[in-house]
């Protein structure tokens, strides 16, 4: 194939330049990371090199690897580089399927520029690393028309690392393996499954060495209990006497029911030995959650649908608490608590947060103007599904089955991953805005694969692994021969 001028990628190069500048300014304005409620747990696990009881601690291994440098500024810089790499992956995937540089750059904009993406990368949290690992897994599957064994191994490994970074990644291996089966990967599906088991199995062994149990967390059932607290009615459930203690209460209507059930004074775990970390609390939470879903399946389904749709609202609202959603933005000023400062001092001396002008002022102005409304994500997701309609008729003939099959072997994987990232938290925990942004890259890739599944440029015919060709494209190629 004749080499294309490098200037064809100028739109994306300009976009990357802007994205880099934005992140450099963010690091200069906020040299230390933004904290969240889970941040101390991640940092403690890194300092002690010991898995957390409540959630997978794969992210803590990254913190541990960077600990010798004793620099929070280096940490946030590395996380911003990871965010930039996500934009590069989106662009490369769109380019391989569409061969339209400006379109690839356009679809990379929601991944590289929105302030909530930049802020998420700046947080002492696992979400940006998790999203990158999962996107790398999807890219490995889609990279070639026929998945090679080493791409299958990479897909499994990346998904496994994502699973030990956030629990939501664990069920997504099913999406990866099904996509490989549909794409005709054959025995390479087994390679991906084995590769997935390596990091997950290693993590389970690590957890066993610390707590004597082959698990990924000790409190894995309390999150589902929090989910059921939204609708659970003990008059309908009729729990056994020992289980009545778990009947949820909420005295503050400004706080979501799942949050109240886990973290406020209304939490029943306050009266259970070991709190949410204890075996009794975890067992009671799991039993109550199962009974609630069994007794009120319709209410459970309504809550899942309702909270999934929250991701597509135009404006962010004060949920799950009046203060939580603001933690995903750059603050005007910040003071660490004594606990945060103590843990930070163990990780990196002099790690107290600093807000540096004029850089921070520029970040705040950027934050007021460059946001990605949830409705845009909804449009991207609908486009990734409805794009198949553009290919049901080709050259005067209807080809519904061919168009659907092309969509299934291409757009379905990123589209299904995007939807799963929105539904899984809504089904197993509670809606939170930090779960929305990681879904955006997959919606962008799905849209590209849906729109260009049957529109294959002639110059790509010599690149056998550029993208999965459509059945109509194969027929035209056969006729030309």
From TrEMBL:
Key word Transport present: no
Q: Organism, per UniProt?
A: Actinomadura spongiicola
Q: Which UniProt keywords apply?
A: Membrane, Transmembrane, Transmembrane helix
Parts of the chain that traverse the membrane: 6-26, 72-94, 100-120, 127-143, 149-182, 189-208, 370-392, 404-429
* Signal peptide residue numbers: none
What protein name applies here? Glycosyltransferase RgtA/B/C/D-like domain-containing protein
